[in-house]
Amino acid sequence: MDFTFITPDTEKELKAQLSDRGSFLMAGGTDLLVKVRIGKIKPRKVISTLKVSTLHFLEDKTDELVIGATITHSELMKFKPLTRDFPILHDAIFTIGSAQIRNRGTLVGNIVNASPAGDGLLALYLLNAKVEFSDGSIIPIEEFVIGPGQTTLPAGEYVRAIHIPKDKWDIHYFEKVGQRNSMTISVASVGWLIKCKNGVMFSSERGGRTIEEFRIAYGSVAPTVLRLRDVEEFAKGKHIDEEFVHSISEMVKKDVHPIDDVRGSAEYRKTLCANLVYRMIEEEVKC
Amino acid sequence: MKVSNVKSSAVAPTEFKVVDTSVSKVDGYALTKGKAVFTDDFNIPNALVVKILRSRHAHAIIKSIDASKALALEGVACVLTHEDVPRVAYTRAGQGYPEPSPYDTFVLDKKVRYVGDAVAIVAAETEEIANRALDLIRVEYEVLPAVLDYEHASDPEMPVIHDEPEISGAYDPSRNIANHYEMHIGDVDEELAKSDIVVEGTYYTPNQSHAMMETHVAISYFDPNGRLTIISSTQVPYHVRRIIRRIFGVESRVIKPRIGGGFGGKQAVHVEAYVTAVTLKTGRPARCVYTREETMTASNTRHAMRFKLRVGASKDGKLQAIDMQGLSNTGAYGEHALTTFMVSGSKTLPLYNKVKAVRFGGDIVYTNTEPAGAFRGYGAPQSTFALDSILDELAYKLGMDPIDFKLKNSIREGETSPIFKVMGEGREGVEQIVQSCKIEECALMGAKHFNWYEKKKRPRIEKTKAHGYGVAFAMQGSSIPAIDMGGATIKMNDDGTFNLMVGATDLGTGSDTILAQIAAEVLHTTTDKIIVYSSDTDITPFDKGAYASSTTYVSGNATKRAAEKMAFEILKAASEIMSEPVEKLHLENGKVISESDRSLTYSEIQTKLFYSFKQRQLEVTESFVSEVSPPPYMVSFAEVEIDLETGKVDVLNFLSYVDCGTPINPKLARGQVEGATAQGIGMALYEEHVSDKNGRIVTNDFFTYKIPAREDIKNIKVEFAKSYEPTGPFGAKSVSEIGLDTPAPAIANAIFDAIGVRIKKLPIKSEDMFFAIKNMVKSL
């Protein structure tokens, strides 16, 4: 397994290196090195992004957060505005691998890997994040990922950053069901964001508050992370109660298309997905 | 020899100076500093890299092998096939001779019996060339139908896996039965018929991978004088030497360096035969390092077993009879087949010695799957899961707390069980009266520490979470009685240190450390003055190897005897030098001190003996063979939380109360139990071999094969009962295996306690739990 390893210092050098066929970009290497090791990828050249200082940035703007290509999961989790403005992303990243993996792995790496089980990816789908390419173009994350490991990234380009628009959400939830509690790939994962008309209430209260906006996404149950638009539409104006959750649970069952694999059967995954929405009732805050 | 001046094993535990303290491991520094200690760290110049071509078929006859293209590749030294190696049937099992395992294995054969079986040995200048050579070998197979389901292995129409004429020691190879065993005491059917309550059940435990961090590795070379030397990551260097001689007719020296874990996986000859074949053929050093995939799919696994059980009790909670019928899958070859199965009975059934009748038996069958072998617990974790689960169910049906029920029927100090005599390992056992057994303390104190009775008051189902509490009882053994022997040599140096040479094999267990502690205790010195050399067959005395929970007990007793003899030699020499009678001398702090308050340091004594006074080297060798196998006992408590919406089981708390006699090194003993508990949780909840329809193991790496990670083992607590085994060194019994016996039944019992569902098949995966819960809800 011989390959050339290159560590460019500037984005210009980086781009120049990318023109060769058989070259792979590497940040933390937590996905790439696994694939190289099992022989799934046989690179001729591996280009590290880690020495390119202009890719290591976090910009907390008024309307968006911009995350540079070499920001690790651990760095993100320590970044205060993340917990404040994007708790769902924080929760999702927290379930990635282990502390050691999070110290190496990057969020940009997570999206370029384009796994249907990508934990960070699921949160970014919910947040309507956008992907910035090295050619300056910016596209929605859902247009970026097209299948397992497949993206619309043009040859010779790289992902420079992720843009996440700021928005206020009243309720956020993320859960990953894996075979064990850490260092695991999800059997199924779910996340949702809810905006309530007139604010939230606690489960003990009664009131006329309803859902204003609803976003829900699943991981590991389709070729890509899946946003359930029909559920999102249906939820508008509803209360979070038994009847509502039962209805969307039925819709979820129809929407997800999991497969049988070594981690779990399709039937388990489907039923699991339908069950996970019941967490909404158990949560303290509702609308 | 009786030595009145030397403190013998009769001392009370409070008087220990070195034993029963947590001294640092003798190899701890080297390991944390990343020093070169492992087999693969040995840099033998000019070594060929050895790779094995493995079968892609589960069952096939090799019609032809064309290695011409591989041999033409520059840098390929040799390609060996079944035609190039001696055709000698042997067993890979590293056991006492003659081995109770069938001789059904060849270094290479013209038949392959599982996906991963060896087809050819390739040796090349580099790993890359060796791998390319593997791709260039053309093998023509006649593919045979395969036996993949062990429950149907001896069905009439099944293909015969071992039809070679050379096989010996197998029970009925024509029906794929490697071994068969049965025993009974009393009339089980009659006692069950008379019982007020009878419970029946069938229990399944899966294959399990050892998942030791260091894979199998061996290096072989001729030393300058032409003696074949094998450096190997083995638990059984002396058995390796013997088996290599059986196969190749060659004498050798086997060196075991630091081992990166074994768990029984290295109680077999895996790699040594391949490198030896290459060195004998080429005259050159040869090195073979198994990949993780090879270790996971082409070495050994835990025997998957099925137990059909019937137990009966009277209304007042007296256990009357146990009927235990097993079936064990030994895979393609029969290493450890009979003995693991017998241990399933012999290391569980004596625990409940109040029964009137016991029956145990079954077949160990061949299949076209990865060969099973020794694995920590050696059959006992499988049977303890079955037996303890069904006794828990029986207690429930009797309306008794499982602790009360199991205590009422279990063995106590001063008692015996006829099973000790009836069942040994591969043959009859030995009678023994249990001289140390604190199971009552383990259960009662354990319940107290765990807060069992308070916890049981909690509601079981709250919203979407269920909580449950389970308890499991276990015993194991300490060595294989009347078979296991270990030797120890102690040599005194003129700097006041001693060399302790033992055949005992430290595989990460800490045996080098605890043996040094035992020697230091006897010799009234500190562990840093005991320099341990272990497991070099040309230098250290024989030891059976590291298995069967025997090192502390057997090698520990050998070390203690040798140290006692050395102490006497020191006193004798000092008496001559000081012209004082031996009776007026004693050992203290590395010195001999006389009643008249004169003293000589060990260094002064040996220096005098070297250069100026009755010149001689003080050196002694002693051996110990176990006459009994005193069982350690343990009671474990599990608290589980089940997510009713996902089926996920979390083990929130796991407490074990252990009677292992005197823990020679409490920290290391605790580590043994904690590690075994983690492996037991893995067996209970996560670990499973998933194979495709052709018999290829899909879970062949740590990506797909899940051992528990830190977050999965939550809160493990280990407590030790005050116990003293009179036959053990300073009161010690074993502690290395027993910890694996209880997690699965304790967790399964806790799950029943939580939601009323009895899980009888391991691992208890979230998915299976999920559907079990769904079915339960449906039937309500």
Describe the structure.
The complex is a heterodimer of chains A (287) and B (780). With 287 residues, chain A is an alpha+beta fold. Chain A has 3 domains: 4-48; 53-165, Uridine Diphospho-n-acetylenolpyruvylglucosamine Reductase, domain 3 (2-Layer Sandwich); 171-286, 2-Layer Sandwich (Enolase-like, domain 1). Helices cover 33% and strands 25% of the residues of chain A. Chain A is built from 13 helices and 16 strands. In chain A, the strands form 5 sheets. In chain A, strands 4-5-10-6-7 form a 5-stranded antiparallel sheet. The model of chain A has no long low-confidence stretch (mean pLDDT 92). By secondary structure, chain B is of the alpha+beta class. Chain B has 3 domains: 13-37 and 484-625, Aldehyde Oxidoreductase, domain 4, CATH 3.30.365; 40-144 and 210-297, Aldehyde Oxidoreductase, domain 3 (Alpha-Beta Complex), CATH 3.90.1170.50; 304-480 and 628-779, Aldehyde Oxidoreductase, domain 4 (2-Layer Sandwich), CATH 3.30.365.10. Chain B is 28% helix and 23% strand. Chain B is built from 20 helices and 27 strands. In chain B, strand 25 (633-643) and strand 26 form a beta hairpin. Chain B is globular. Residues 1-12 of chain B have low confidence and may be disordered. Chains A and B meet through helix 12 of A and helix 18 and helix 20 of B.
- CATH architecture label name of the largest domain in chain A: 2-Layer Sandwich
Estimated structural class of chain B:
alpha+beta
CATH class of the largest domain in chain B: Alpha Beta
Strand order of the largest sheet of chain A: 4-5-10-6-7
First-residue to last-residue Cα separation of chain A = 56 Å
Rounded Rg of chain B:
27 Å
Q: What general form of chain A does the structure show? A: globular
Please report the number of helical segments of chain A.
Answer: 13
Q: Write down the CATH class of the largest domain in chain A.
A: Alpha Beta
The largest pleated sheet of chain A is described as: 5 strands, antiparallel
The main sheet of chain B orders its strands as 3-5-1-12-9-10-11
The oligomerization state is heterodimer
Q: Percent of residues of chain A in beta strands?
A: 25-35%
